[in-house]
From TrEMBL:
The chain crosses the membrane at residues 21-43. Pfam families: SpoIID. It comes from the Bacteria. Residues 85-108 have a biased composition (Basic and acidic residues). This is Stage II sporulation protein D. Residues 128-233 form the Sporulation stage II protein D amidase enhancer LytB N-terminal domain. The lineage of its organism: Bacteria, Bacillati, Bacillota, Bacilli, Bacillales. Keywords: Membrane, Transmembrane, Transmembrane helix. Residues 54-114 are annotated as: Disordered.
Length: 407
């Protein structure tokens, strides 16, 4: 082969090699580009998944005018009046409203191991210590149940109390009610102004060493088995009002307060009479003290000067004439510091003897009634459905959009 032909062959081979190299490089580049594009698309897709899931789980559609909007004037008027009551102490004035009442199926609103409430912190002002304690919401609920209901109550009654206590604080946090918490930065106090609360450090000290383990386990079970559950009416957490002992019936809200609340209706509560030590109480007052506390004239006062004008649906005194004045049953109860607004009386000499039936204002859940229902086999959801008419026990996840703002 001549030198010229060899040169021509080499050049041809080099050209072919160069073309193949560029084709190879182009192919590699194309593959890399496609891979990068696929990675970007995958990342975008992955990013969209949690965002979509969050939006789906956290978005709650509007269900019409909220309870707060419907009853704004009511809440303003009675913010200081709606308080919680404890069954065995003097804490008898408690906190401040679709489904059909639930049957015995307690699995309808089964609790979760965690809930949307787990991230919430409650700032509790400890009045005696004059400091704010910051605790997780479920820890707060435990302290309220321990303070508001005797530990020897049935487990299902304690669970009903836990759900009511949780409902109260969730509603308060969602509505941003802090104006009556006494101290800036506190959500609630540890008194009957809101809910009575016992910190863990004091809680363990109120029982003997032998009682402590069993009582703490029972209390913990009541909280754990209701974790995240609240009582709702038309999608809103209710005013979970409760009191110690009924006279056989609960009261309509408007018969004690001025506001008619659809789920606070008068219902029968026959269990209290048989089991509550607070059902009946008798006190005696000098007539001079009786007149002074009520601000009525003693002159011309006689037995006939006391006359019931009207009774409530819950069989308590609605209006009563005493001397020259007409009072509501609530006014007499509060002025004379009576246990209930259902009472009878007798006058003998310079003394008046008054016998009351029931303990507390009578609106919402009767704690001793709840214990009576539990003794008969009722579950927490059934107890709550009985005392809070046309309500539902639901997981707080249904309120997640509002709760997320507090987390």
């Amino acid at each position: 082969m001549s030198r010229g032909k060899r040169t021509q062959l080499v050049v041809s081979l080099l050209r072919r090699h160069t073309v193949k190299r560029w084709l190879a490089l182009f192919g590699i580049g194309a593959m890399l580009g496609a891979s990068i594009l696929l990675i970007k698309l995958s990342l975008n897709e992955l990013r969209s998944v949690p965002a979509a899931s969050y939006a789906e789980s956290e978005t709650v559609e509007s269900q019409g005018t909220s309870v707060k909007e419907k009853t704004a004037s009511r809440i303003t008027e009675t913010a200081a009046q709606l308080r919680q009551a404890e069954p065995d102490e003097k804490n008898d004035v408690n906190v401040k409203e679709r489904n059909e009442p639930q049957q015995e199926d307690e699995k309808a609103a089964a609790p979760q191991t965690s809930s949307e409430l787990d991230g919430l912190i409650v700032h509790v002002y400890l009045t005696k210590e004059k400091r704010i304690e910051n605790v997780p919401l479920e820890t707060y609920v435990r302290g309220v149940v321990a303070a508001e209901m005797p530990i020897d109550f049935e487990l299902e009654a304690l669970k009903a109390q836990a759900i009511a206590a949780r409902t109260y604080i969730v509603r308060r946090l969602m509505q941003g009610e802090e104006s009556d918490a006494s101290v800036h930065g506190a959500d609630v106090t540890d008194t009957i102004q809101h809910q009575v609360y016992t910190p863990l450090a004091k809680l363990e000290g109120q029982w003997t060493k032998a009682q402590r383990k069993a009582n703490m386990a029972k209390l913990g079970k009541a909280i754990d088995e209701t974790r995240g559950l609240v009582v709702t009416y038309e999608g809103e957490p209710i005013e979970a009002v409760f009191f110690s002992t009924s006279n056989g019936y609960t009261e309509n809200s408007e018969d004690y307060w001025k506001q008619q609340i659809p789920y606070l209706r008068s219902v029968e509560s026959p269990w209290d009479k048989a089991i509550s030590p607070k059902y009946k109480e008798t006190v005696s007052l000098k007539l001079s003290e009786f007149h002074k506390k009520l601000g009525v004239k003693r002159k011309g006062f006689a037995k006939s000067s006391l006359r019931i004008i009207e009774r409530t649906e819950g069989n308590r005194i609605s209006k009563i004439r005493i001397g020259d004045k007409v009072f509501t049953g609530r006014e007499v109860r509060e002025k004379l510091e009576l246990a209930s607004s259902q009472f009878t009386w007798s006058v003998k000499g310079d003394y008046i003897t008054i016998t009351t039936y029931g303990y507390g204002h009578g609106v919402g859940m009767s704690q001793w009634g709840a214990n009576g229902m539990a003794k008969e086999g009722a579950g927490a959801a059934s107890i709550l459905a009985h005392y809070y008419s046309s309500t539902a026990v639901e997981q707080a996840s249904k309120l997640s959009a509002q709760l997320a703002q507090r987390s």
